[in-house]
From TrEMBL:
Sequence ranges assigned to domain YchJ-like middle NTF2-like in this UniProt record: 35-130
Pfam families, per database record: YchJ_M-like (PF17775)
Organism: Rhodanobacter lycopersici
Database matches in InterPro entries: NTF2-like_dom_sf, YchJ-like, YchJ-like_M
Family membership noted in the UniProt record: Belongs to the UPF0225 family.
Organismal lineage: Bacteria, Pseudomonadati, Pseudomonadota, Gammaproteobacteria, Lysobacterales
Protein name: UPF0225 protein ABQJ54_10045
Length: 133
């Protein structure tokens, strides 16, 4: 797991800082209030290599056994997140469109543009699946 200075902006881009943004979600102290908030916290978890949080916030129907983040070679350097929008389908289903930028090794920057689907069960949002654009 990658260390982070709690006074710096959160990896998801919130200038309030990690301790006031994604940190409490990662530590299990609060649950995401929306699919977009869960999306931001999942991006931060990728940046910080919090595989435990990523798997816990992934719906059981589609969750892989492991992500093997520590084994990624070259490891991605995450450059930023843009949440383009959230659409609530109903009380328990939402879609979030986002673009995450990253670099592999010393190479050029890449973009992951995705439409992600989220499901809420027992008051908790889960990432279900996504479609790359």
């Amino acid at each position: 797991m990658k260390a982070i200075d709690t006074l710096t902006p959160c990896p998801c881009g919130n200038p309030a800082g990690y301790a006031a943004c994604c940190g409490p979600l990662h530590d299990g102290n609060v649950v995401a209030a929306s699919a977009a908030q869960l999306m931001r916290s999942r991006y931060s978890a990728y940046v910080l290599k919090r595989e435990d949080y990523l798997l816990a916030s992934w719906h059981a129907d589609t969750r892989p056994a492991s992500l093997r983040l520590a084994a990624q070679q070259p490891a991605p350097t995450w450059l930023g997140l843009e949440v383009r929008g959230e659409q609530r389908i109903d009380d328990d289903h939402a879609v979030v469109e986002f673009v995450a930028r990253y670099r592999l090794g010393g190479g050029r920057a890449h973009r992951q543009h995705e439409i992600s689907r989220f499901v809420r069960e027992a008051g908790r949002w889960y990432y279900h699946d996504g479609e790359l654009m």
